[in-house]
Amino acid sequence: MNILQINSSARSTGSESTRMSDKLVAGLVAANPGATVLRRDLASDPHPPIDEATLGALFTPAESRSAEQNARIALDDALIAQVQAADVVVIGAPMYNFGVTTQLKSWFDAIARAGVTFRYGANGPEGLLTGKKVYVNLSRGGVHRNGASDSQVPFLTTFLGFLGMTDVTFVYSEGMGMGPEAVAQGQAQANAQIDAALA
């Protein structure tokens, strides 16, 4: 089993979504002793966002790209290869202003490439990153699960499904900004969800 862990919190320490992901990955490794784990921390090792130069490189035929364009595309290629090789993807996704972090969005933008991770056919779009199990660990300052303010889950479900990753389990840790009692309750609930997901 190849496990890819993506930490997308801007915090290098004290991140609840990273704590959840670490716990879940530890459980996966315990159940699969031969598993390998590749971790990518997008706070300490951020991926560059899409800009005009990136778009220029992406839309230039490979044989016509400059050395600089090839170097930029190679950064995305490396992330695509990591997710292609993964059997399990574990994503830590804190809620920032009702959405995913800019760090995670840049990672998503890097791995979404027409003809490589998805394609358009006669029946519409087809995701090419199939056969993977995905766990998304969601941490929130408030309580948003199943509410109108939860724009994360619809977006993540749509995006991951578009790339072919349809076996997705969401784990929630909510109330992290609502005081010590709410934090303890939210973490306990998240731990129980992780245990259930691993059972």
Percent strand:
15-25%
Question: In terms of structural class, how would the helical and strand content be classed?
Answer: alpha/beta
Task: Give the assembly state of these chains.
Answer: single chain
Rg is 18 Å
Largest sheet: 5 strands, parallel
> What gross morphology would you assign?
globular
Number of strands: 7
In whole angstroms, the N-to-C terminal distance is 17 Å
| Count of helical stretches | 6
**Low-pLDDT segments:** none
Order of helices and strands: EHEHHEHEEEHEH
Walk across the major sheet and give the strand order: 2-1-3-6-7
Fraction in helix? 40-55%
Indicate the mean pLDDT.
96
Task: Give a verbal description of the structure.
The chain has 199 residues and is α/β, with parallel strands linked by helices. It has helices at 16-31, 52-58, 67-85, 102-111, 152-162, 180-198, and strands at 2-7, 36-41, 88-94, 118-121, 124-127, 133-139, 167-173. Strand 6 (133-139), helix 5 and strand 7 form a beta-alpha-beta unit. The two termini are 17 Å apart. The mean pLDDT is 96.
Structure keywords:
single chain, 199 residues, alpha/beta, five-stranded parallel β-sheet, two-stranded antiparallel ribbon, 7 strands, 41% helix, 21% strand
